[in-house]
């Protein structure tokens, strides 16, 4: 099976855990534009072709050597002792489908 057909299969696999935030989508789109140009932004689908390291590994892929993650953020809800909900900002490293390769079963991660 060719790598491109494998990546197409992964892109059509279950969706990522992107929460639908337009702010984070725009952050990643801008980084894609800087690295690969405007034409690549059209291919960006945050639910299918951009995932965390562990998200790609669970699908049998890993980032290519030397690739640098796209930077994003996420917010987690946390409750204090009084029960008040507080938003906690967390940095999130995302890899685009152009940055990953299939894991060779003979190699260690």
What is this structure, in a nutshell?
With 109 residues, this protein is α+β, with helices and mostly antiparallel strands.
Alpha-beta classification? alpha+beta
* Helix/strand order, N-terminal first: HHHEHEEEE
Kindly state the percentage of residues in helix.
25-40%
Q: Indicate the overall shape.
A: globular
**Count of distinct strands:** 5
Largest sheet: 3 strands, antiparallel
Polypeptide structure, described:
With 109 residues, this protein is of the alpha+beta class. It has one domain. Helix content is 31%, strand content 28%. The model has no long low-confidence stretch (mean pLDDT 84).
Highlighted features:
28% strand; 109 residues; 4 helices; 5 strands; three-stranded antiparallel β-sheet; two-stranded antiparallel sheet; alpha+beta
List the helices and strands and how they pair.
Blueprint: H1 3-11, H2 22-36, H3 38-41, E1 50-51, H4 53-58, E2 61-63, E3 70-79, E4 85-96, E5 100-102
Antiparallel strand pairs: 1-4, 2-5, 3-4
């Amino acid at each position: 099976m060719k790598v491109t057909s494998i990546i197409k299969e992964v892109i059509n696999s279950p969706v990522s855990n992107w929460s639908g935030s337009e702010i984070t989508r725009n952050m990643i789109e801008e980084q894609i534009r800087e690295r690969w140009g405007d034409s690549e932004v059209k291919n960006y689908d945050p639910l299918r072709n951009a995932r965390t390291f562990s998200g790609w590994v669970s699908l049998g892929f890993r980032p290519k050597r030397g690739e640098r993650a796209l930077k994003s953020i996420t917010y987690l809800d946390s409750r204090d002792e009084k029960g008040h909900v507080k938003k906690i900002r967390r940095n999130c490293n995302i890899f685009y489908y152009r940055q990953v390769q299939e894991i060779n079963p003979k190699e260690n991660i």
